[in-house]
Each structure stands twice: as structure tokens, then as C-alpha cells.
Amino acid sequence: MPCRPARRFCATAHRSGTSRATSRRASICIRTTSKATICPRTRSTPATPSSGKTNPDLSGFSGETIMNEIHTDSAPLLGYPRSDGRKGIRNVVAVAYLVECAHHVASAIVTQFAPRFGDDDFDAVNAHDAEPEVHLIGFPGCYPNAYAQKMLARIATHPNVGAVLFVSLGCESMNKHHLADVVRESGRPVEVLTIQEKGGTRSTIARGVEWIKQARATLAAMRPVPMRFDELIVGTVCGGSDSTSGITANPAVGRAFDAMIERGAACVFEETGELVGCEYHMKSRAARPELGDAIVACVEKAARYYTIMGHGSFAVGNADGGLTTQEEKSLGAYAKSGASPIVGIVKPGDIPPTGGLYLLDVVPDGEPRFGFPNISDNAEIGELIACGCHLILFTTGRGSVVGSAVSPVIKVCANPSTYRNLSGDMDVDAGRILEGRATLDEVGREVFDLTMALGRGERSKSEMLGHQEFILTYKAFEPIGPGCLPIVPATAARVSA
Questions:
Q1: What pairs with residue 87 in β-bridges?
Q2: 204-236: buried (b, 16+ CB within 10 Å) or exposed (e) per residue?
Q3: How far apart are the first and last CA of the chain?
Q4: Which of 60, 254, 310, 470 has the fewest CB atoms within 10 Å, i.e. the most exposed one?
Q5: Which candidate, 259, 251, 227, places its Cα nearest to that of 69?
């Protein structure tokens, strides 16, 4: 049922930090100061179950309003074709260190190709007009971890990656030869340099630099081809949230998500630890009953995990920014998901097989073994990229300046004061909604348009500033259950040739 414009959004949420049996519900009301519509689906308006691709009824709400004014067919996305059938909106060389002992050598190799302020490559607005960038990724651990191995394999074969150099010390547990085989089978140039076998630091750096020069020449000869919207995967994350995030930037991203999904894209939202209390709202939007049950179980797992840790996903900066409770933060995070039906759950490294809206389960299975699920925003971004996200929509109220390796990041700033202070780092000023200078639909359209522009090679501000943050740590997951993914073979669509 379509939602009418409202100046108030009320929902119930479980108190975090308590068990399912003893939790008490709290009614949370967020008042807006603009013409915004904040009306996610509730338990009283369940989504109609469907299979395969979904075509949500967005009449009078968010995405449809945007789509009526956007004609994307005349300006297609551009992507670099890969042998698995996917396309990348960037064509980078990834240099991956396989243990902290190799971090310095890998970093020194990448530094040789880092553009500088004033260089033509740095100032080039369109990524297709510049030399292929060289990005640093890696894993610091010496001991084996299936999660880290899977993450590196997925990111090294991400459609935005054109070639890969692995840098190994030589005695770590990461299976470098398996990683190289995975990349080689994907049709990308790949090399493994082992410091203990190549004569040490200087020699390994020199060999790495020479190999990358050749790889860049190969990639520079490639030209992007038209890319359909249903080949696009977009992720979203929030960081440095404040009291404005849930009423400006987050719902604006939700509107952009609805418009993208209407065009066939796959969109991924996450932060299950910040969705505690919203599980039944998400269940009502599930495409199938068993998926709704899996969503509830996913969020309840997060609540148990944080309870055992004795720490919730609520930072000092959130409180300083005016957020009062975990419930308020949860409702704000939930707003990023828009109004489309949820068609599946994925775990880090699982690639959405079709278009639609997906929830990313970021909380480890079992008892806490490695501490906080994600120690920073970039840990979450890395997991979204491992799921194949071509770009990331990052909302912030307090102001985060990070970008990412491999996939570009669009910064949607919720707070008008923050935007004025950090305008050189922010891409979209969603704070205009609070000041009455724009509506949620207008800002949602701006986010959509900017996503399209980056999909054609334009650069975000974090890209032009050289931000390529990346972090990967230990984590543990069990295999995903059959009730989570859509009823579509995993080999279909994006992951097939």
C-alpha cells in the first residue's frame, strides 16, 4: 500500500542488549522538519510474496517519483567486460599483501603509481580518461581464516579489478597459489611475488613495479562497453551517524535504491547490529515467508552477539551528534533500505544472483571469537565490495572522509552544517532537506543521477582526493542456509558467463 507524505514516523523497536524473551517494545517517533516522506513498510502492510525479480508498487512513493523524471536508456552505464560475464565500472590493478609482514613492500609498490595533486590523472574527472589506478588491499593475519581467504578471492576477481599482484612473505598460512589460480581462471593477469624468494625488500619492490607497468599497459588498451542497469550492484553503509542521518541522507538513499531496483539493479544494505528492533518491519517486506523468518533470525543473532560482547553498535560520536537511543539509530539505518521487497540475504562474499534488495548479514555465526563484527566503516565497505558492489553510497552526519579501494564511494551528507564544513569531501548535501531547500525525492534523484554518472566513469570526491582505505580482519561464518537466498540458481545471472 503506498505511503502518504508525513511529518512523523512512528515504529516499535526492541531494546537492544536484551534477549528475545525478555525484550520490551519501545515506541520511537522521529519528527521531520521538512516536506519529507518517511514511511517504510510496517507489519500491517506486508509485501506480496513473489519469486525471481520483483516489481514493487512504488506508486506515489520514492523510486517511482524519481524514475518518472529519469531517462537512463539514452545514457547507458559503461563497464569493462570480464570473462564471467560481469562488467566493471573501474579497471584497477589490485596489489594484495597476504600477511602484515608483506604490507610495507606492497605499499611501496603501490606508492610508485600514486597520482599526486595537480597531475592530469589525479584531476581527470572521468576515470576512463586516466591511467589505470593501482589500489592496495590485503590481510594482516599469519594464521588461516576461511573468511579472509574468501574475501580476498572475491575482491581480487571483482569486476572493477583488471589485474592482481599478490605479495607474500613466504611463510604465512594464506593459500597464495589457490588465490592466484582463482584470478588466473577469471581471465585476469596475475602474479605472485614472494619476498623470501625474490631477494628481499628492494628486489621485490622493483619486480612488482615492472610487472604493474606491463599490467597497466594491457588494461589501458581496454575500452569500456555499454552496461545495462540490471548488471549493476550498489551497496550502502552509514558512518558517523547523527540525529539528522535518519531523516535526510538515509531515506534519500532509500529512494535512490527503489529507483535502481525498479530498473533491475541489485542493491545491498547491511549493519544488522544497527537494525535491532526493525526485524519485523523487514520480515513484512520479505518476498517469501521463509525469507522473513531468516531475516528475524539474522537480526536476533546480532542482538545475542552484542549482548554477549556487552557492547552495542552505538558510538560516543553518535551521542555527541544527537542520537539518543539504539532504537533511534536502528530506525535511521533501516531508512536506507527504501520500500522495495527484500528478495534475499547474503553473507560477505556472496554475489546477488538477480536484481532486487538484499540484506547483508555481517555478524559472525556462533559465539564471539574475534571481537566486534566490523571494527570500522571500511570493514563493512570491504564486505559489500566482496559481494560485487560496483560502488558504495555512504551516508554520514558527523562527517566521514574515507573512500575505498576497488569500488568508488559516494558521500551523502545528512547534516547541513557538516556539509558546509566538509564540502570538499561530500558529494551530496542531503541537509538541504532540513533547511527546506529540497525534498527527499529531489535528493534521492540527485543520488541516483550521481550513481549513473559514476557508472559512466565520473569520479566521486573521495576518488579525486585519493582515498583508497581498506581493512580486512579475522571473522567466522557458517555456510549460508537455503532459506536465505532467492529461488534462483547461484550460477545464474551475474555469476554466469
A1: 81
A2: bbebbbebbeebbeebeeeebeebebebbbbbb
A3: 38
A4: 310
A5: 259
Residue ranges of alpha helices (H) inside 312-398 are 316-320, 326-334, 377-386
Q: How many domains does the chain have?
A: 2
Total residue count of the chain as it appears in this document: 497
Q: Assess whether 179 and 100 both reside in one domain.
A: yes
Per-residue CA distances from 425 to 259, 412, 463 (Å):
25, 10, 10
Q: Is residue 263 part of a domain?
A: yes
The answer to whether position 144 is within a domain reads yes
Containing structural domain, residue 448: 62-69+228-464
Half-sphere exposure of 283 (CA within 13 A, CB side): 18
Contact 78, 20 (CB under 8 A): no
Q: Say what the pTM is.
A: 0.81
Domain assignment present for 11: no
Whether residues 218 and 235 fall in one domain: no
Question: Do 250 and 207 reside in the same domain of the chain?
Answer: no
- Nearest by Cα to 469 from 415, 425, 438: 425
Which residues of the chain fall short of a pLDDT of 70? 1-75, 117-124, 311-331, 478-497
Per residue in 17-65, pLDDT tens?
333 333 322 332 322 333 332 232 222 222 333 333 333 333 333 444 4
Cα(446)–Cα(181) distance, integer angstroms: 41
C-alpha pair distances (Å), 165 with each of 89, 177, 426: 20, 12, 32
CA nearest to 215, candidates 112, 352, 358: 112
